[in-house]
Design a protein that fits this description.
Structural class of chain B: alpha+beta
Strand order of the largest sheet of chain B: 2-1-5-3-4
CATH class of the largest domain in chain B: Alpha Beta
Order of helices and strands of chain C: EHEHEEEHHHHHHEEHEEEEEEEHHH
Number of strands of chain C: 14
Number of helices of chain B: 5
Helix content of chain C: 25-40%
Number of domains of chain B: 2
Shape of chain B: globular
Largest sheet of chain C: 5 strands, antiparallel
Strand order of the largest sheet of chain C: 4-5-10-6-7
Strand content of chain B: 15-25%
Largest sheet of chain B: 5 strands, mixed
Oligomer: heterotrimer
Distance between the termini of chain C: 53 Å
Radius of gyration of chain C: 19 Å
Radius of gyration of chain B: 15 Å
Chains: A alpha+beta (about 775), B alpha+beta (about 150), C alpha+beta (about 290)
Shape of chain C: globular
Chain lengths: ~775, ~150, ~290
């Protein structure tokens, strides 16, 4: 199908606002009479709160309310809001504020005051009496008998322990020619969205709440907040901001701040704002560290005969996302990636007195991919096998049944093309062995794959996956698109407007995303996460656009005295097929539909018909048709300085089957940004904590290192393979996560190719390289 | 105890009552509603708060508002001439350099000093000019493209 | 924010006003030059006792003067202005300063001052290491008049220096450097907006016989309370012919002159190893500047 807007790098509709200041961020929300709240946090990783004395704080002029754990709801919950509040797959182990502290930084009190400065001073006046308890920061230690028990329901501090098995593992190992074992560890890292977590909650005297927040889901927040406050959802109205300043999964849940702001607003009858400091953001959400034990059996030609993995995930003080991350990690990161009859995986999400984790692009797959793709590289090196052929030998094929989702097939699956094209563009065949060439700088090339991923969550137990949209046409020929879909920065507005424009037959500039919607005015939408917006929300938007288009053509048909089937619309013009001179503009048709029933003209009264009258509007709410898998392979070329251990990523070639490119410029931007995060994960990012106190050591950008423009490789080539997914809007499936998952193992493999040192622990710092070279 | 100060911002003089330790960032956002300058870390680590003081890019979160009296402050709001965008702003739109946009204004203000002083900056000079600005969305490639585009347009 | 005891922000226009304020507030005064150090401390909650912030931006203490007796840098000369000075860009003797000024991001260079980064008295900064190897002196003014303090005597501990509470830095002076002198500086950082994990500054003069004289090697970063002179490495360098073997030996000698820290940025062994590598590279770079 030829498209005029899909496949074009149209400029982003929100870019003008953002380059002139950016009015739409939730951080800008100011309401009259607004108070400012601050949260007091525990310095201890594990403690009982014996007493909280707020008298001095309450006396401070300007302080309007002080909240302690005893003022907070007793309802247990989990922060995760892409599932129903009673989802069985989640672990409801949190309170808004508890009198048991389980991590350093846990909220223990909150103050609302007329200014931030006063609220902060009031925090200093709150006296908390703690009884310190023994704490444990290592998940394997936490699983041992005798470790402090952090939750009454969790024996050995195990929050969840999924185990999945296929075939006969023992038999698989018995038939292997070679068996490989290894342990791979990944670290805790932070999403580093640039706009902090912030909210304003306004309670009215009738118990209705209006909520502004930097979040990834309107309806998730509404559902969760109403659950905590024990009120019907209809009493919580969540306002959609025009966009937010980054999420990456780190805002994929209800924070402490929304419930606390809601409670303070109820108390004070004024809106309450809470903005987290960067330090607070660092200790609020993170990608979970996972230690993966792999045992793999292969035939001498590289065919897998048996695959076993055990994953220990540190879920910190509360299960939160850990309960789901562990499953995605085990399935999409390990079990489902390649064909193998005999597989077993055991996952442990373990409580410790560390900070809780959250969502972060990749959601468990980066940790698995690092292990799996590193080990495959080791296997190929040991057995002298071609690593490209190894993947092809074990890969799924197009047309295979989906390895997990029942009733689905891999209708489009261009993994092989990704391997071949990527290798060719990188010049993979020309790579030499370790330590080639003179001098202390060594180059190497490596690659890694994400063979299976998702386009949303259809088929996942408990996870919401439906979207809705309303498309309304205006008499000036423009259209307004109303959806609950949150734009995190990754281009959701642009993509959905492109889809709507193409679906309607309007030019791109004629379609605008409505900025002022809320949970009362638009259909439900699952969060912006799991690479779902293009495929899932796009499906609903296209459906709504087609409803509107159908009505548009119906009215046009009446005006042109033809049947709607004989009309086509493109670039704002409706023409009779085969008769280009017989046309109307979209504006003319909408004007007719919206005009008075009898309009006075120069020729006298001009009546219309009932059939032509009425706002031209399309509504759809639908689940997508499937959950097609993209496929991706990332190649990197590195240079390692063997005197300093420094690793420079010189070049990246990234191949990704995404079905159809909606916007090439935006797609490249996703890959480039994904690599900034993925290279940081590989080489420098590390949220660290003091082992004696649990205090965060890397709570600002001086100590938590992310790539700047100086370290970032600029030579990044994306190869987008268009397999034309039949169930996706204009053939699209997903893009944005695998590009953050493959960099770390690709880099680890490239480092091995450069210097013959295998590092199985992230981040791969210069110090680890030097130690691996025997220089320390 | 508040101090009464005069701040010249984007060519306009404002009288403000600020606390002695109020930052320029706080003065801009909270007193003057100039919300284009943003707080990302409040500790000179991310660059979202970058403005120009007497033509030099600075972290406004690291300047005391009181100390800026007598200087000319330029924020993102002062760049466009009515409907006509500064070449940097236009280039950011044209190159696709804006994703979430939270870092964008700070980077434009830093890049502006570069382009005002160096005619044809190299890729390396551009990288270093924005080394003090973090971006988490774009991977910097299209940001650098935008700055090169703006340099060529000048 | 985190200045709960703050009473006022002062901007004296005369030096005696500044001295008066320093006397009045004593230990609880904090001088603000560029402001980046002060804000760094504030962000970490370390300024809870500060009662007075005193801005020295209006005292006319900025300025660079060069002459036969050396270089005079006004205390509030910004790093950006210093970077553009002709002698910094072109004189191999001052190569270390040029190198150090290449590291800070634009926003820091534009406001950070020479006096401020010396007064901070923290070995994580770069420029002071280079002023040390160039035999810099601090000129201070206080209630009892002015005095000169050699930089080698200036740093007395972490955040501590030889200034009395009523004194402030007016100038940094660098003596004239002999012909045939070169210096260089390297900083170990993880990304481009970072404090030194370690840093290394070197200076030496090559006499007519091609032998090294008057060498200085200073190591900073996570190295302890203050910068460290690598004395045995300097001795090894002096009087010897500048070649690859010498530089190897000198840089290895640095390892025994230092006792680096282990922290979340790196271990002592890593810092020690890198001090050796960077000394080697800095020596090479300085030598290249002379050819």
């Amino acid at each position: 199908m030829t498209t005029t807007i899909i496949g074009k790098s149209v400029p982003r509709p929100d870019a003008y606002d953002k380059v002139t200041g950016g009015k739409g961020y939730p951080v800008n929300v100011k309401l009259p009479g607004m108070l400012h709240a601050k949260i007091l946090r525990s310095p201890y990783p594990h403690a009982k709160i014996l007493n909280v004395d707020i008298r001095a704080a309450e006396q401070l002029p300007g302080v309007k309310a002080v909240l302690t754990p005893s003022d907070c709801p007793k309802r247990k919950y989990t922060t995760v809001y892409f599932v129903p509040t009673d989802a069985a797959s989640m672990v409801q182990d949190m309170l808004v504020m508890s009198d048991t502290v389980r991590y350093a930084g846990q909220p223990v009190a909150a103050v609302a005051a007329t200014s931030v400065a006063i609220a902060e001073r009031a925090l200093d006046l709150i006296e908390v009496e703690y009884e310190e308890l023994p704490f444990v920061l290592d998940p394997e230690q936490a699983m041992q008998p005798g470790a402090p028990q952090l939750h009454p329901h969790a024996q050995n501090n195990i929050a969840v322990n999924p185990v999945m098995e296929f075939g006969d593992l023992e038999a698989g190992f018995a038939e292997a020619d070679h068996i490989f074992e290894g342990v791979y560890e990944t670290q805790r890292v932070h999403t580093c969205y640039m706009e902090p977590r912030v909210c304003v909650v306004d309670a009215d005297p009738e118990g209705n709440f209006t909520v502004h927040s930097s979040m990834q889901s309107l309806f998730g927040l509404r559902q969760k907040l109403s659950y905590l406050l024990e009120i019907p959802e209809s009493k919580v109205r969540v306002m959609k901001p025009p966009y937010i300043g980054g999420g990456f999964g780190g805002k994929l849940d209800i924070g402490y701040i929304e419930p606390i702001a809601a409670l303070l607003s109820m108390r004070t009858n004024r809106p309450v704002r809470i903005e987290q400091t960067r330090y607070e953001d660092f200790i609020t959400t993170a990608r979970h560290p996972i230690k993966v034990y792999l045992k793999t059996g292969v035939k001498k030609d590289g065919t897998f005969t048996a695959r076993y993995a055990k994953s220990i995930l540190d879920t910190g003080a509360h299960a939160t996302h850990g309960a789901e991350v562990i499953n995605v990690h085990g399935m999409f990161g390990f079990l489902l990636t390649y064909r193998c009859a005999n597989r077993k995986w055991e996952g442990y999400a373990v409580y410790t007195n560390n900070m809780v984790g959250g969502g972060f692009r990749g959601y468990g797959s980066p940790q698995a991919c690092f292990a799996v793709e590193s080990q495959i590289d080791e296997i190929c090196d040991e057995l002298d096998l071609d690593p490209i052929e190894f993947r092809r030998t074990n890969a799924h094929h197009q047309g295979d049944p989906h390895p997990f989702l029942p009733g689905m097939k891999l209708d489009t699956y261009a993994f092989d093309e990704c391997l071949v094209k990527g290798a060719e563009r990188m010049g993979f065949a020309r790579r030499t062995g370790p330590n080639a060439g003179e001098g202390h700088r060594k180059r190497g090339i490596g690659f890694a794959c994400q063979p299976l991923w998702v386009s949303g969550c259809l088929g996942f137990p408990d996870i919401y996956e439906h979207s809705g949209a309303i498309v309304k046409l205006n008499p000036d020929g423009t259209a307004d698109l109303n959806t609950a879909v949150m734009d995190l920065g990754s281009g959701q507005i642009t993509t959905l407007c492109q889809i709507a424009a193409e679906g309607l037959g309007l030019p791109m500039e004629a379609v605008r995303m409505t900025q002022t919607v809320d949970t009362t005015t638009v259909p439900f939408d699952a969060p912006s996460h799991a690479s779902r917006v293009t495929y899932g929300a796009g499906t609903a938007v296209l459906a709504a656009a087609r409803v509107a288009r159908q009505r548009l053509l119906q009215v046009a048909g009446i005006m042109l005295e033809v049947s709607a089937e004989d009309l086509e619309v493109s670039d704002g013009k409706i023409t009779v097929k085969g008769s280009p001179d017989s046309s109307l503009t979209v504006a003319e048709v909408v004007q007719r539909a919206e005009s008075p029933f009898v309009q006075v003209t120069e020729e006298g009264p001009a009546p219309t018909t009932v059939e032509e009258k009425g706002t031209i509007i399309g509504l759809a709410s639908t689940a997508p048709a499937g959950n097609p898998s993209p496929a991706s392979v990332g190649f990197v070329e590195v240079e390692v300085d063997t005197e300093t251990g420094e690793v420079k990523v010189e070049r990246v070639v990234y191949a990704h089957d995404l079905g159809k490119v909606i916007n090439p410029n935006a797609a490249e931007g996703q890959v480039e940004g994904g690599f900034q995060q993925g290279i940081g994960y590989a080489l420098m990012e590390d949220l660290q904590f003091d082992e004696h106190s649990g205090a965060c050591l890397t709570a600002d950008f001086l100590d938590y290192k992310i790539l700047t423009a100086v370290e970032m490789p600029l030579n990044i080539e994306s190869i987008f393979i268009e397999s034309n997914e039949p169930t996706g809007p204009f053939g699209a499936k997903s893009l944005s996560e695998p590009c953050i998952t493959v960099p770390a193992p690709a880099i680890a493999n490239a480092i091995y190719n450069a210097i013959g040192v295998r590092i199985r622990e992230l981040p791969i710092t210069p110090e680890k390289i030097l130690a691996g070279l025997g220089k320390l | 105890m508040k101090k009464l100060i005069e701040l010249e911002v984007n060519g306009e003089v404002h009288e403000l009552a600020v606390s002695p330790d109020e930052t320029l960032l706080g003065a801009l956002r909270d007193h003057l509603d100039l919300i284009g300058t943003k707080q990302g870390c409040d500790s000179g680590g991310c660059g979202c708060c970058t403005v120009q003081v007497d033509g030099k890019a600075v972290y406004s979160c690291m300047m005391y508002a009181v100390s800026v009296q007598g200087s000319e402050v330029t924020t993102i709001e002062g760049l466009a001439r009515g409907p006509e965008l500064d070449p940097l702003q236009q280039a950011f739109i044209d190159a696709g350099a804006v994703q979430c946009g939270y870092c964008t204004c700070g980077i434009i203000m830093a890049a502006k000093q570069l382009l005002d002083t160096v005619k044809d900056p190299s890729e390396d000079e551009i990288r270093h000019a924005i080394a003090g600005n973090l971006c988490r969305c774009t991977g910097y490639r299209k940001i650098i493209d935008a700055i090169q585009l703006a340099a060529a347009a000048a | 924010m985190s200045l709960p005891a703050l009473s006022d922000y002062f901007i004296p226009e005369q030096q005696n006003e500044l001295i008066e304020l320093l006397q009045r507030f004593g230990e609880n005064a904090m001088i603000v030059a560029g402001g980046t150090f002060v804000h760094g401390l504030e962000a970490r909650g370390l300024l809870s006792e500060v009662e007075a912030l005193i801005d020295i931006g209006k005292l006319g203490l900025n300025g660079i003067a060069t002459g036969p007796s050396g270089v005079v840098l006004g205390a509030t000369t910004t790093l950006a202005d210093l970077k553009q000075a002709d002698f910094i860009q072109n004189d191999p003797a001052f190569g270390a300063v040029k190198d150090a000024l290449g590291y800070p991001p634009l926003q820091i260079r534009n406001v950070g001052t020479v006096g401020g980064c010396v007064a901070a008295s923290v070995p994580l900064y770069d420029v002071p290491a280079t002023l040390l190897v160039l035999d810099g002196t601090v000129h201070a003014l206080g209630a009892n008049g002015d005095r000169e303090i050699a930089l080698t005597d200036f740093f007395t501990g972490l955040f501590e220096n030889a200034l009395r509470t009523d004194e402030f830095i007016t100038e940094l002076r660098l003596p004239a450097q002999a012909a045939g002198t070169a210096s260089a500086f390297l900083k170990l950082e993880t990304n481009a907006n970072d404090l030194a994990i370690i840093n290394v500054a070197v200076r030496f003069t090559l006499d007519e016989a091609g032998l090294c004289r008057d060498s200085r090697i200073v190591i900073g970063g996570g190295i302890g309370e203050s910068y460290v002179r690598a004395g045995s490495a300097e001795s090894r360098l002096n009087g010897a012919k500048a070649d690859a073997d010498l530089f190897n030996a000198v840089s290895k000698a640095v390892a025994t002159d230092i006792d680096p820290v282990t922290d979340h940025r790196g271990s002592a062994q890593y810092r020690r190893h890198m001090a050796v590598v960077y000394t080697h590279r800095a020596l090479g770079r300085a030598l290249e500047r002379l050819s």
